[in-house]
Amino acid sequence: MPVLSLAPAVSLLAAFQRVSPVRPLRTLLRTTGEKFNPPRLHAHAPSVRRAQDAVVGRGDAGLHQFATVLREAGRGRTPTIVLGGFVPDSTEQVFLLRRFFLRFGDLYYLNYPRHGFSLDLICAQLDDLVEELTAAGRPPVIFSVSFGGGVLLEWLRRAKAAGRSAPLAGAVLVSPVACVDDIVDPARPKPATLLGRALKPYLGAAGAIREEAVEKSRTIFTRMFEAGAQNKATLRMLMTRAELARLYEGVMGTIRGITADGARERVQALRQMLAPTAYFSQALLPLTEAPALVLYAEKEDAVLDPGSPTRFGLETAGRAYFPQHRMQTVSTPFGTPVQHASLIFHVFDFLPPITAFYQRLKPGRANAAA
C-alpha cells in the first residue's frame, strides 16, 4: 500500500496562510486591539543602580549617554528587553511585535541616547535591569536587533570575562552586527554594503565629524527604510494609514535627531566590540546556557559584508557560544525578499520562529552564564 505524504498539503496550507484573508484578519484584530487598548509606556525607574552608578562615578560616562528605559506592562512572567539597531529606536523596531511580547510579560525598551553613546554604560544598565528582574523571579529574554545583537554579545562576553553570571530566560539575535568587520571588510578599498558606505566616514574619525558626512549617513538610513516602505500591498496588510504615519514619523525623528557626536559614539562602540571569532576559547565560552535564537534574513547584503566574522562564527560553531542554540534563515516565497532585520515589513515571516522560541521557554526560569 503506498505511503501518503502530507507535505504537499502542509506546504499549500503554509502558502495560504501567507496571503489574504489570514493576514488582513490578523491585522484587523491587532489594530482593533490598538484602538481599544493603546500602548501605555512609562519611564522605568530602576530599583538597582549599582553598575550604572559605578560607571558614571568613575567618570567613564556622562549623564547624556544614558539610554532611556521605557516599560509596558504585560501579562506573563517572562519580560522582554529590546535592544534595537543603529536606527530606529527599540519602540519602533518592534512596532508590530509588541502585543506578541506582552502576552509573555512586561516589555522594556532601551532607546539609545541621541547625543552620545557609551558601551560601558549601556552594559551597566543591562547589568542592573537584569539583576532587578531576576531578583523579582522574572528573568528576562533579551531581544536584540542588528547593532543591538552586538551589544548583547559584548554584554555577555564582559560578564563571562569578569566571572559574573548573566541569568536570562533566553536570548534572541536578529541579523546581529557585532563588529566593524561585519559591515566593512578591511581588505577592500571600498565598502561592499550600503551601510558600510554610511559608516565609513566615522571609522577613521577621532574627533568631530563633518556635517556633510552626517547628512549623507542620514540619507542612506532614510533610503534603507523607505525601500521597505515601497511595498504598498504589504503595508496595507500590516498597518492602517494612521499607524504607518506614526511609524514613519518615529523612524524619521530618530534619524534626524541623532547628532554628529551621537552617531560617532555609536560607531566607536561598534569598534570597541570584539568579533565572536576573536574570543573562541574555553575560558569565555559558552556565553550563556540560556536558550538562544539567531535569525538571519535571506537578503542581508545591504548591511552585512559577505565575510562577516559574526555570521561565520555563529553559523559554524553556534553551539559553542550558545549550547541551546537554534539558527534559521528567514525567507518568504511571496513578495520582496526578507531584508536585514526587517521586523516591520516582513513581520509575518519572522513570527513563526520567534513564536516557537517563546513557547518553549519556562516562565521564571533563569539560565546563568556558564
Write up this protein:
With 370 residues, this protein is α/β, with parallel strands linked by helices. It has a single domain (37-360), classed as Alpha/Beta hydrolase fold, catalytic domain (Rossmann fold, 3-Layer(aba) Sandwich), CATH 3.40.50.1820. Helix content is 45%, strand content 10%. It has helices spanning 7-17, 22-36, 50-57, 90-93, 98-102, 119-135, 147-161, 194-203, 211-229, 232-238, 241-257, 260-272, 309-321, 347-360; strands at residues 42-43, 68-72, 80-83, 107-111, 141-145, 170-174, 292-297, 325-330. It has an eight-stranded mixed beta sheet, with helices on both faces. Helix 7 links the parallel strand 5 (141-145) and strand 6 (170-174). Helix 8 packs antiparallel against helix 9. The longest helix is centred in the middle third of the chain and has 19 residues, at 211-229. The relative contact order is 0.15. Mean pLDDT is 86; it is low at 1-22.
